[in-house]
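Hi R.,

Here's the chain you asked about this morning:
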Amino acid sequence: MTARKIIIDTDPGQDDAVAILLALASPEEIEVLGLTAVAGNVPLALTQKNARIVCELAGRPETRVFAGCDAPLARKLVTAEHVHGKTGLDGPTLPDPTMQLQDGHAVDFIIDTLRAEPSGTVTLCPLGPLTNIAVALQRAPDIAGRIQEIVLMGGAYFEVGNITPTAEFNIYVDPEAAKIVFACGAPITVMPLDVTHKALVTKPRNDAFRALDTPVGLAVAEMTDFFERFDKEKYGSDGAPLHDPCVTAYLIDPNLFTGRHINVEIETRSELTLGMTVADWWGVTDRAPNATFMGDLDSDGFFTLLTDRIARL
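And here is the predicted structure, written out as tokens:
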């Protein structure tokens, strides 16, 4: 099996960091063509820096990192320092990166890569707001038909919202961008809160990361130690959900996940439900399916995969 070529679009974020580490630890299944940073969990100056920090932590300083959009298409940026800390990667003490940010804009890199690689061979993996992807689609509509798949973390339906009563953070930050992406016609697979809230880092699971006794294993344990305080208090759960690694785990072993191919629309006009992913789970409309919306995962299998791969770094 040839490795799947991907671009990770990201706003690190501790869970973004773990998703990136999982991808970089899995060269048999995943070839990371580059990372594109977007404003989201923290502003762009920090997300592009954090992406480089994570690449160096993984021992992969040759990975190309591009800075992208620093604000949503039509709204002021909403960030999540209350979850991820003021740096976005609070928890472990990690050195500033020495690898250089690539010249050029992330959107141009996305467009150029999709045009240069054979059609249908590049997967986009957005882990944050969808601004970079939407701008690329707006500037170069021809790339939509060249995308193998868009596998994204975002949205919610049965789990409702985590930033408003109805909206998940990534979609809420730039709902106009999400609307463009979901309407683009490319195959889309969604990892909503319905799935990611089942990927809970319980104490035994975090102890397994720490027991690896490697710089990466310890950093992952310290990241989840930090941001679980917010989720445990908010949800009364046994640990923090690792949202974004669901994207890269799916690329490695899609059998860990189950879902339905349904219609998903993005609310952009209502003050009450702005950013809601309206998922027609029960097929009660005549709207055509446009996304595979995941609903469940094998959490033990997920953490076994994650721990085994993190141990490689």
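One quick note: The first strand starts at residue 4 and ends at 10.

Cheers,
M.
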